[in-house]
Structure formats: structure tokens, C-alpha cells
Amino acid sequence: MKTFLKWAGLGLLGLLAAVLLLVLAWVASNWHDAEPQPIPAALVAPPAQSGEGGLLAALTAAPRSSFSSPWPKCSGTDCRAAFEAQATAFEAWHKAQADFGAACEAALQATTLRLGEPLPAKWSPNMELPSYSPVSTCHAWLLMQAWRAAQRGEPDATLAALKQASRLEHLVRDESRLLIGQMIGASMAGRELMLIAAVAPQFPAQREPLAALAALPGETLVAATRRWVPAEAAFGRAFNDQLRDGSLSPAGAASAPLGVWERLGARFTHPNRTQQLFDAHWLGMLNCLQGQDMARAADCAHVEPQPGPLPGGLRWRHTTAHILHDIALPSWHSYLNRAADLQHASQATQAWLRGQPPTAAIDTAADGTWTLRLRAAGQSHRLPTQWAPLPKDH
Fold first, then answer.
1. pLDDT class for 78, splitting at 50, 70, 90?
2. Could you tell me the pTM of the whole model?
3. CA–CA separation, 42 vs 284, rounded Å?
4. More confident residue, 49 or 274
5. Among 280, 288, 261, CA closest to 318
């Protein structure tokens, strides 16, 4: 028995020694980060700019009710009924936002518009982002004006309000350098398409002007997607800078001195290698964002995390850097799929209004209804996804 216990003890000590050696070998392999590299020219943060004098500042200063827009949830074929069901809520919202609506319309009377998106001189993961809520509310007001005009049977007034809404959406898409701005712009474009789908059956003589308003050229969507990449890369670099010194604290707060274990943990985050992995990802995405087809660009940019040889797919060198990269990788690709869905919805709406055959990503039912095959989850109420056949008589 003593002999057995002796050998069992020796075996256990040997196992613990092997584990310790393995840990020490990993520590030795990951003790040093990669050498820092210069920021790629394509990923340099957009220059600092003040929002003073821009539309964003003007709408933020305008009096605005906290009453949220009662925008209906619909898929396209049911949008008109959904809008009509919200008639009472629409009127209450319209009354509550009357002063802001007047300011919104007045601001858009300017011959030239500048968004005026404020951008910082120093980027931080905790920085305060500009609020796009006033712009979104202004856009909702203009769409509401278009719907009210349609309800009165006034096609010219309907088109005029839709054109103003489209002008505001184009401004956001063409000038915003931030992901949040571009996503608000995409939401605005989707709402425009939904309203166009709702009023089109009522105005057969206006289908061509409506189709022109539904147009979202692929090259502009590709360019808009490219526009937010440098800002996201700048956020990532700022995050890595704070990882490097362990100062992930709220904006403006002083960082507490790091303890021994915190300093030791910060050593193994490898911010240089993390940044290099993300820079390679961003550059690959920019390389894919070419041409006029967002779906093709999204497919090109879709990269699955490559598992490492260790259990759980971990990698021996720069382990933490690869974990951070692999966790974040799928999130950005969803935004490219959202842009592709928006392009397909725009193309389908134009073809539907012009009586043309169905476009890409469309399934046709036996009754002639078109259904959009969505690429991104959660899109069904952000843009039209179904189009019922329009009457043939124009």
C-alpha cells in the first residue's frame, strides 16, 4: 500500500510539474507582444470637425417633444393598412411635434445642406457620440407629411414631402463618418421604401416618380459602408491603447493605479497584435467594398474565424489577441448584410413600380406576390419585404 501511495504521489507530482511546465512555456511564448506597426493610410481616423452650423446642431437645438414616432410595423403588402390603423396615434404625434416639424421643414429649405457631424481630435471607446435622434425625428415628420398628403388625395404634395425626406436621408448617407450615422441613414431609407409601398397603389400615375425616389444606387451604398470603416478602426485602436495601460475607465474619469495582477493581465492582452489582426480585417473589408453590388461585397468580406490547433480552437501565440479578434469578427459583417438587404429592397420596389420582372433575392408566390430573401436578421420591419401585384391599369 505504501508503495502504491508513493508511486501515486510521484505520478501526481509529475502531472502537476507537466502542467506547470506547459503554463510556463505558454507564458514564455506570450511574454512579448508583436512589434508596433504604423497605422495603414486607409484606416487613419477621419479629421476632427465641429458640428457648429450644421443641420445636426440646428435640429438638436429645435424644441422637440419626447413623444416617440408611432411608426407601424409592416412588411410591404400590409403597410397601407398598418398606416391607416395608426391614424389616431399619427395625429397625436403630429400635434405634439408641430414646433419641431416647422423647424425641420425650415432647415431643409436651405439651398445647400451640411450635416455637421462632430468628430473628435482624440478617439476613445468611451467618447460621447452625436445623437441622431433629432435627424430621425425630422425624417419621420417629413414621411408623416407625405402620408397625410396621400390621405388627402394630393399626389404632388405627397411627392414633395417624400423628396424632402429623401434629401435628408441622402445627406446622412453621403456625409456621416460614423457607423451609428450610417445605420440611422439606412433605417431612414427603409422607412421611405415602406411609405412608397403604402402610397403607390393609390397613385398609379405617379409610379415612375416614386420609382425614382426608391432608387438607392449600389455604388452609393458601397461608398457609405466604406465611409464608417476608418472610424471603427479608430475606436478599436483607442480600445487597444486603454488595454495596453489598463485604463478602461469611463470617459473623463481618472484611472486607478494598477495592481500587480492587473499589470500582469494587461501584459498578455497583446494590444499590438490585436490591432494588427483588426487592421488586416478592415483592410480586407475595404478591398471587398468595391463596385456596385453590396451582396457581392458582403460575401467577399465574410470571413469565418480560423480555429487554432489547441482545444477550443485556441492559438498558442498571441492567444488573447486572437480571442478578441474572433469574438468581434461576426458583428461587423451583419452591417454589410443590412446594406445588401436595403439595396435588394430598393431594386425590387423599383421593378415592382415599373411592372418589370422580379430582381435578385426575390421569391415569387403563386399569386404573384414577391418576397425578399433577407440576409440579415431583424430586418423584417426596417424595410419592405413583400410586394403584391399592382393593378395593370395606369
1. confident
2. 0.86
3. 11
4. 49
5. 280
